[in-house]
Amino acid sequence: MATKAKAGPGKAQKKGRSSGRTTTPGASVQSNRYTAPIPKNAKTSPRWMGIVIIGLFVLGVLVVILNYAGALPGGVNNLWLVAAIAAIFAGLILATRYH
Fold first, then answer.
1. What gap in Å lies between CA 2 and CA 34, rounded to an integer?
2. Tell me: the pLDDT tens digits for 35-58?
3. Taking the chain, what is the end-to-end CA distance rounded to the nearest angstrom?
4. Alpha carbon 1 to its chain's center
5. For 8, which DSSP code?
């Protein structure tokens, strides 16, 4: 059986099995900080928000594809690409606020 060196400053312990615990099994560690619970109505977003996010992403990608295919009015135009990027960006902003 391996012997352990004394623990202390500058004293290394021999490699081997350790219990892995730093606290006693029955002890509970409590913080002195108080964290207020999040109100129930602040946790969930309305159902329409997820639908709008997906819709803006799909609309942006669809406009990019249709622009390069020349299927939009006015032919291939950079303004359609700006509108597509704006739709994707708006969907991204909404997605960051979704709960």
1. 45
2. 888 777 667 889 999 999 999 999
3. 55
4. 48
5. B
Confirm if 84 and 77 have CB atoms less than 8 A apart. no
The domain locations on the chain are: 43-96
Mean pLDDT, residues 14-21? 62
How large is the average pLDDT for residues 23-44? 74
Distance (Å, whole) CA 34 – CA 72: 57
DSSP one-letter string for 73-91: TTSS-HHHHHHHHHHHHHH
Burial per residue of 54-89, b for 16 or more beta-carbon CB atoms within 10 angstroms, e otherwise: eebbebbeebbeebeeeebeeeeeeebeebbeebbe
Structure tokens at 45: 């977003």
pLDDT value for 39:
78
